[in-house]
TrEMBL record:
Organism, scientific name: Oleiphilus messinensis
Highest taxon in the source lineage: Bacteria
Entry-linked NCBIfam families: recQ (TIGR01389), recQ_fam (TIGR00614)
Annotated EC: 5.6.2.4
InterPro entries hit by this protein: DEAD/DEAH_box_helicase_dom, DNA_helicase_ATP-dep_RecQ, DNA_helicase_ATP-dep_RecQ_bac, Helicase_ATP-bd, Helicase_C-like, HRDC-like_sf, HRDC_dom, HRDC_dom_sf
Domain called Helicase C-terminal: residue spans: 222-368
Catalytic activity: Couples ATP hydrolysis with the unwinding of duplex DNA by translocating in the 3'-5' direction
Official protein name in the record: DNA helicase RecQ
Lineage summary: Bacteria, Pseudomonadati, Pseudomonadota, Gammaproteobacteria, Oceanospirillales
């Protein structure tokens, strides 16, 4: 491809988006698609995947067709493009028939350059035939991991997207996702029939995100202690069940927070309203199942909290990646317990998957549990899972900020393993630990376990300590959970040398207290500290944000679609005196300059 085309791409980047140069793998992805090659892009959330297909679609002849599973977000995505001056539209079941006909007419008359469409609509035979009547610049398959059975969010309606190559063999396909291991990448390429694709894997590290994980002790108190550091900030709290979502959201409202529930069981109009409020208002906390979050572009989400274990490291990475898309400090915080592992294992067992897939899902769950229990830099361990190297010490995770103590857990492990064996390997963690600690419960006496030699031999340790030992025995593979037997804990063959004293076992001490960071690392997490706005500039900062909010309301888009916080901060730093000055600021493209520039200049001069 000629240098001229990439020069045009960079000129478009400056004119449309207001940025001076591409990041990471963006230029390679854009060049590949401009050359007409199929391209597989693995890039972290916030890494700028959409630009990888938007710019080639605008420069190539024809219409760029973007396949997205996110009907509820298509309008927002199209509105954001229209704010940039891009002729874009969406086509899905939410549009009335006449509006759908209007979009199709605009496609035929070349009035649209980017079209967002749901996979089930695209795959209708009538749609495919209609699209053959005009030139297609490229197909972009967003959230491409949904096409793979090995991906963490497989969608049945993505399976048939491979037929696009049958109907449009010469049109390049871009498959984009934030997370995909090697097996998933190969599956994506095969299912979409990609022809010798250019495969680009960006860096997975999100250095602005602080990772923290701790055992669940008092979930609500732990959550409140965490949220105290984020006054007025937007965030997401993930729960495993719909019932827990609703109860947690209701409780947070009682504590004075603006919190909204979101799960697939709520009415569609309520989900849409809650999503709209989260995107458009400041300080909203969304309490959600995994049904929420994919495609959310809100840049100033300051935290993602998990009150339960997700299903895999891929799911965790994808969900936590919704924090800090603006590059400013953000936190990924999680509490978990052994019951999470039992419940998720049972869900896998009851899923109806074949045996191979069940083994695969259990391996993923074990991998996540192992990551939760690491005693080394959490970021390094996370990146290692994705086959990427990282320094031994990141300085921005709970392990690096407060390294856990290690202790010789050999004797404790032997006691616990013996209790599991003596009770017949037929009971869950709760009963085994009751027996070990000498608690006289009805279940213990009914089974005669108060007469066992192991009854009460663990009285020297508290319940949280024994729970920690059991979790770490799971991670090391000495025991496993039998989902077929209602979560019974069973010994693995590898436990024999440990029971005989032939090996020693080092365990980590849990850090349960909420104040897990050294005091100098704590921040109030308010907006001013994050954006580094000087106290004397705070009135101007608030005035610019109010101006942005007013314009966003007028134009029916979220505030961040007008300008990101970073761009407002640059206005304060450089104090542009003219539209020409403002055009030099990062994030100020030509369309936004013409539409909004004068309003912000007026505000800068008034304050």
């Amino acid at each position: 491809m000629s240098k001229t085309m990439m020069d045009q791409a960079r000129a478009l980047l400056r004119e449309l988006y207001g940025y001076d140069d591409f990041r990471g793998e963006q230029p390679h992805a854009i060049e590949s698609l401009l050359n007409g090659r199929d391209t597989l892009v693995i890039m972290p959330t916030g890494g700028g995947k959409s630009m990888c297909y938007q710019i080639p679609a605008l420069l190539r002849e024809g219409v760029g067709i973007v396949v997205s599973p996110l009907i509820a977000l298509m309008q927002d995505q199209v509105s954001a493009l229209q704010q940039l001056g891009v002729p874009a539209a969406f086509l899905n079941s939410t549009l009335p028939p006449q509006a759908q006909q209007d979009v199709l007419h605009a496609l035929q008359t070349q009035q649209i350059k980017l079209l967002y469409i749901a996979p089930e609509r695209l795959l209708q035979s009538a749609t495919l035939e209609q699209f053959k009547s005009f030139r297609v610049a490229l197909f972009a398959i967003d959230e491409a991991h949904c096409v793979s059975q090995w991906g963490h969010d497989f969608r049945q309606d993505y399976l048939a997207l491979g037929v696009l190559k049958d109907h449009f063999p010469d049109v390049p396909v871009a498959a984009l996702t934030a997370t995909a291991d090697q097996r998933t990448r190969e599956d994506i390429a095969q299912r979409l029939q990609l022809h010798e694709p250019t495969t680009l894997v960006g860096g997975f590290d999100r250095p602005n995100i602080r990772y923290s994980v701790m055992p669940r002790a008092n979930a609500r108190r732990q959550l409140l202690n965490f949220l105290d550091r984020f006054p007025g900030d937007a965030g997401i709290v993930y729960c495993l069940s719909r019932q827990k979502v609703e109860k947690t959201a209701q409780w947070l409202v009682q504590q004075g927070y603006t919190a909204l529930p979101y799960h697939a069981g709520l009415p569609a109009d309520m989900r849409a309203e809650h999503q709209h409020r989260f995107l458009n208002e400041d300080g909203v906390i969304m309490v959600a199942t995994i049904a929420f979050g994919m495609g959310i572009d809100k840049p100033n989400v300051r935290f993602v909290a998990h009150l339960d274990l997700p299903k895999s490291i891929e799911a965790y990475y994808q969900e936590t990646g919704r924090a800090g898309r603006d590059g400013e400090p953000a936190e990924a915080w999680m509490i978990y317990g052994l019951q999470d592992v039992v419940r998720l294992a049972q869900m896998v067992d009851q899923s109806g998957l074949n045996d191979q897939m069940k083994r695969f899902e259990r391996q993923k769950l074990n991998g996540l549990l192992g990551w939760c229990e690491v005693a080394r830099c959490r970021r390094q361990a996370l990146l290692a899972y994705f086959d990427q190297a990282a320094p031994d010490h990141c300085g921005n995770c709970d392990i690096c900020l407060n390294p856990p103590e290690m202790w010789d857990g050999t004797e404790a492990a032997q006691k616990l393993l013996s209790a599991i064996y003596r009770t017949g390997q037929r009971f869950g963690a709760g009963h085994v630990l009751d027996t070990l600690m000498g608690k006289v419960t009805e279940k213990v006496t009914q089974n005669g376990h108060d007469r066992l030699s192991t009854f009460g031999i663990g009285q020297e340790r508290a319940l949280p300590d024994w729970q920690s030992v059991l979790r770490q025995l799971l991670v090391h593979g000495f025991v496993h959970i039998d989902a077929d037997r209602f979560g019974a804990i069973r010994l693995d063959e590898s436990a024999r040398p440990l029971l005989r004293g032939e090996v020693r076992l080092q365990l980590r001490k849990d850090l349960i207290k909420a104040e897990y960071m050294s005091s100098e690392k704590k921040t109030g997490s308010g907006t001013r500290e994050k954006m580094d706005i000087a106290p004397q500039d705070q009135p101007l900062w608030e005035a610019l944000r109010a101006c942005r909010k007013r314009l966003a309301t007028e134009h029916g888009v979220p505030p961040y679609v007008i300008f990101h916080d970073k761009t407002l901060a640059l206005m304060i730093e450089h104090r542009p005196q003219s539209l020409e000055d403002m055009a030099q600021l990062s994030g100020v493209g030509q369309a936004k300059l013409e539409r909004y520039g004068q309003a912000f200049l007026d505000q800068l001069q008034m304050t």
